[in-house]
């Protein structure tokens, strides 16, 4: 019997024998005739998901939660999930205690087996959510292309932790250990402490901006607001100096240089223009309540649980809301650049893929949406637009058409293609990777947009500053033996493959922890935060 059971365990753990809906595994059948809770567990486990079946199979269907101390250790450990932005109540700690008491008041093996399965379900669910997230990202975004790997914690370690009453240690071991997640977790603790101390003051609405050098009643409140988050020491005001060289006591209502520096730091951390002026956008960011910032941290921890696992040694990471691309090179160096991403109504998607090749001196076949909404209205006003932008008019089969012979009010299925060159919308280099959204990284003739703090101007693809440098690094690091500049200088349109593919991840973060541990809060340009927060806070169905 034990040999059959052990073979069944191995198959379950390897994922080779998922149970059909009307069948029990051989591993469970071998224990069904055992008396008491063991036999009941072997019978009841057949309707559970494979990981629960595997959990009990490797225990020989020995109950896990007979001892009240194990339940107490579990419910106590659940409260540590608050530090991860999860709700302990989702895993029903009160019901765990109450049902255990009721199950063991009477010696009913069936009821005790039901309770054991219930408690194990709650434990594995909590561990799954901690490691890979509570919310299914595909339920929020039908175009989601970032696979979330299944949990990878060992069930034997879970079993040992239950038997050893070391559930808090187990949770700590399952908790994501990558640095960005830990920094978000520390930031969550810090902002919750700020909330506990009363948060920060709200600045009143103003008719005009507050500028450096102004003397204003709101300046002391601004100092206090920035001091709460550590941007400014309250007593850091500059001393004014009389022309005769004598010092004047600092005026607390004066917007001085130290306060200006603190405001600029705040603006940079919130992707605002760092001009030191308290205008409409900066005032709005200052007045976001601490409770909202806490929620932002929590939901970005959820995004981290989706994404930051199984990362390759080297990869390209595109931070949509942060307007930043980072290339983590094989030698450990990080190459970074500013990017332009999709407008709110033409969003850059989240996806995970592999860079396969580059196109030098690309042509640009104008996508249907851009053709319909952007190009055709301009052509109808001025046919010369086609010649100025070097746009060819082609039939669906690729035959050239005379623009003067096209009915531009009803152009049909014509193809508009921009010739290669420095003024091509894709610039002179495109970095490509397979995906369902037809997006890619590319050069641009509109270099001035990179100087903006907020850069959501594209139609979904990602424009990269200094993309030639990135392209050459990718060729070098994949041993592709190619020279980007020489290829571009040839003037020919060419597709050049990488010898080895390079992973690329495009994702959306509205909170980013810096190397110094400080959190940068970004505008939610695609308005995704509220929908995720609702799902994160939604109680789990009973």
Structure description:
There is one protein chain. This protein is an alpha+beta fold and 542 residues long. It is built from 19 helices and 16 strands. The strands form four sheets. Strands 3-4-5-13-11-10-6-14 form an eight-stranded mixed beta barrel. The longest helix has 24 residues. The protein is globular, with a radius of gyration of 30 Å. It starts with a helix and ends in a 5-residue tail after the last helix.
Outline the secondary-structure elements:
Layout: H1 2-13, H2 26-29, H3 36-44, H4 50-57, H5 68-78, H6 93-103, H7 109-132, H8 155-163, H9 167-174, H10 179-196, H11 219-228, E1 240-241, E2 247-248, H12 257-269, H13 280-286, H14 290-307, E3 315-319, E4 324-328, E5 334-342, E6 351-360, E7 364-365, H15 368-381, H16 384-388, E8 391-394, E9 415-418, E10 429-432, E11 441-442, E12 456-458, E13 462-464, H17 467-477, H18 484-489, E14 494-507, E15 511-513, E16 519-521, H19 529-537
Parallel strand pairs: 3-14, 5-12, 11-13
Antiparallel strand pairs: 1-2, 3-4, 4-5, 5-13, 6-10, 6-14, 7-9, 8-9, 10-11, 15-16
Helix pairs in contact: 1-4, 3-7, 5-6, 5-9, 6-7, 7-14, 10-14, 14-19
